[in-house]
């Protein structure tokens, strides 16, 4: 088992790197709130998920998350070497793989959600069929 003291500096550097990366991520997430709100509004208003809209949201999350992993990893690697650097590289690679897996699985969500909504609320109606005559987005 490695000596925990050898990694204490890595932990301090990691904390600072995570805080800096989190500030950048927070700005990026704020920029993506409009996409998330549109997806949520469509879900509650039309009882459906637009797969393209959801895909754009997933793509934004993917890009931001991979950039965050890279930024933290680069920051840590800049001040470490040897075994600690190798652990950092493996951890970053594993984090990228996990994010890819989870986001790939999330692409199934619109289909599941739309089928569930249709079973719960019935088939979508065309604008002419809406009782109040209101138009909705169809797709």
Plain-language structure description:
This protein has helices at residues 8-46, 51-77, 82-106, 109-121. The protein is built from four helices and no strands. 6% of the residues are buried. The protein is mainly alpha-helical and 139 residues long.
The count of DSSP E runs of length 2 or more, i.e. the number of strands, is 0
Content-based structural category:
mainly alpha
- Percent range for β-strand residues: under 5%
Mean pLDDT, all residues:
78
Q: What's the story with the biggest beta sheet?
A: none
List the quaternary state of the chains.
single chain
- Shape type: elongated
- Helices, by number, come to 4
Q: Taking Cα atoms only, what radius of gyration do you get, to the nearest Å?
A: 21 Å
Reading the helices and strands in chain order gives HHHH
Please describe the structure with a list of short key phrases separated by commas or semicolons.
139 residues, mainly alpha, 75% helix
Overview in brief:
The protein is mostly helical and 139 residues long. It has helices spanning 8-46, 51-77, 82-106, 109-121.
Layout of SSEs?
Blueprint (H helix, E strand, L loop, with lengths): L7 H39 L4 H27 L4 H25 L2 H13 L18
């Amino acid at each position: 088992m490695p000596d925990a003291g050898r990694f204490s500096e890595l932990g301090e550097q990691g904390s600072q790197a995570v805080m800096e990366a989190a500030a950048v991520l927070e700005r990026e997430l704020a920029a993506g709130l409009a996409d998330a709100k549109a997806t949520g509004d469509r879900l509650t208003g039309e009882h459906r998920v637009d797969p393209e809209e959801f895909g754009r949201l997933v793509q934004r999350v993917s890009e931001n998350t991979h950039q965050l992993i890279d930024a933290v990893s680069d920051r840590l690697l800049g001040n470490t070497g040897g075994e600690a650097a190798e652990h950092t590289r493996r951890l970053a690679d594993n984090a990228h793989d996990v994010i890819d897996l989870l986001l790939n699985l999330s692409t199934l969500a619109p289909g599941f959600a739309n089928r569930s909504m249709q079973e719960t609320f019935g088939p979508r109606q065309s604008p002419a069929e809406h009782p109040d005559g209101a138009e909705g987005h169809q797709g």
